[in-house]
Design brief:
Layout lengths: L1 E4 L1 H4 L20 E7 L4 E7 L5 E5 L6 H15 L4 H10 L4 E4 L3 H21 L4 H8 L12 H8 L3 H4 L8 H7 L3
Parallel strand pairs: 1-2, 1-5
Antiparallel strand pairs: 2-3, 3-4
Amino acid sequence: MTLRCTKKLLKRVPSSSTSSGVRPTNALGDWYADILFTEAAWVVICVSERSLVSVVIPARGLSSLVPRFRVAVGDLLLRLGVSNEQVRAEREEMVEIVVGPTASRSVLGSMNDLMFQCRGRLAQSGVTDLESIALELAEVPCRPLGYKHPGQVAVELLRPVITRAFVRPSQNPKSRLESEGA
């Protein structure tokens, strides 16, 4: 998995390897990160490319960003109602995190929208609980998701594969026979 940082953040985060050719094996895909400077606090916002669910982490100690990011993702998923087993499986797939540059302008655009929301919440809350801000961001409808909430999409992506395999109508034998005129 790759933590895809903006140029502004990439200059500040130590990276030991490159992300070329690294394909995500976790359900939420690569994550995009940027640093947000406000009067209230300096934070890093990380956004999943597949669900747009976000975690907000203090920007202090950027050398420990990757391990703190991994913990923040697990904590957020638990608060969204994802089972312990599914969180453990997602964390296991996130053991090897490579830091690299961004690759999708679409995700960057969504991240900029979420950063705007985050900036407003930081100004309102006085930065007491970044996890609560992340939960609020998980409820913001996003156009690229068909106006679904990122938290809802993340939970759907983390459902066991066997559950998702049987929801496609095209796999229903009766509907296939009807379409063939039988």
